[in-house]
Structure prediction request, 289 residues.
Amino acid sequence: MSVYYTTPVDKRLANIPKLCKKAGQRLKCFDYYNAHNDNARPTCRHFDISPQTFYRWKERYNLQHLESLPFPAQACGGQASYSVELVKAVLELREQYPRWGKDKLVILLQHQGFDSSASMIGRVLRKLREQGLLREPIANHISARKRQRQCPYAVGKPKGYQAKEPGDIVEIDTMDARLLPGIILKHFTARDIVSRQDSLGAHTRATSHTAFSFIDTLRRRMPFPTKSIQVDGRSEFQDAFERECQRRGIKPFFLPACAPKLKGHLERAQRAHTEGFYEVTDSNFGVLN
Prediction:
């Protein structure tokens, strides 16, 4: 004959403070199961759980010893499992190293004797941030990284814009041509992506004025009008170059930095110029992209 608990669930849970409130739902499930002749089907329908879940609970827990029911606090929505000492240590280290994340802080905490994981430290940081105790450092903008410039006229190429006729999109870029030691020329390359026609130019400097003067070169050499120009974010394609494009009614499209795949036609043209001229001449020519 099996022994069955008739004590109310709430009173049984009160004697075991480590169990969370949701443990009562599972205990009620087993009470209902025992009260209906150990029939799992009506129990699953009544509590809206799957039979696989019920039998997993039944196999895992011993109802004669409720202390053995492993209901973790976090899984049941109770209090956090980390200690106050850990929170204080995380806050002190974060104030000392304001840019460090959980993966770095967990190493220092282990050296201090805390047995914690990176995910736990992440939860502590999130809790401190929600409570307003975690102050983020103020950026002083001394990084060497360049900021994204604001283009008053140029925009990114629209998604639906396609080059169908010569002159719809002309890609322009520069590269350094080393003639002799200490002598560097700025090699301008323009390629129409429809006709594959190139126009080249060389200057001692790459400025916005030399760049917009290269537009005159395009007008003289290419037998079709230039409707739009696609360039990257280099300084020579800013300021005066952009104003000149606006004055002539040419749409300048700017590409994001470090995106050579977006200008494949031009990269292939520069490779052809390098391999077909600079690398096979008798002079000390060299090219630095």
